[in-house]
Design goal:
This protein has a single domain (3-145), classed as Divalent-metal-dependent TIM barrel enzymes (TIM Barrel, Alpha-Beta Barrel), CATH 3.20.20.150. The chain has helices spanning 14-24, 43-53, 69-82, 100-113, 139-145, and strands at residues 3-5, 28-32, 57-61, 86-89, 116-119, 126-127, 131-132. 39% of the residues lie in helices and 17% in strands. The longest helix is centred in the middle third of the chain and has 14 residues, at 69-82.
Amino acid sequence: MLLLSTSCFEGYGIHKIFQLAQKAHVTGLDLVLSYENKDFWDEEYIFSLSQEFSVPVLSITAPEKAVTEAVIDTIVSLAKKLDTQVINFVPPHISDKKTKWFKDYLPKVKKQSGLSIAVQNVEPKFWLFVIPEYKNATFAQIKNIT
């Protein structure tokens, strides 16, 4: 299986990315969401491109920062529309004020939606040598959520 990440083509439009994925004969795409790329959030548009180019979206990667329950609901809706089974998340960033989505909401979504939830085991980075850049990023905490 060869999965192509849309983050490899940052700066290109999603239509061009699907076109390149089709020409490369990849198995599918990992749709990496960011708040700047509004087209990536459009369920109908992504679905039509997936159908047009016969390239499925096999996984979705959530934005790295500013994730909320509403954002998770939007991503789950997008995953259901595209028949995607895997959603990837990064632990909350130190700058994120709201982090309850990670410990409380994400496990509920996993149970209710039947989707596979993956949490990236991010490398340990520190601000001022003592403050971890990502909250709740220990292996035990990630294992508990997934």
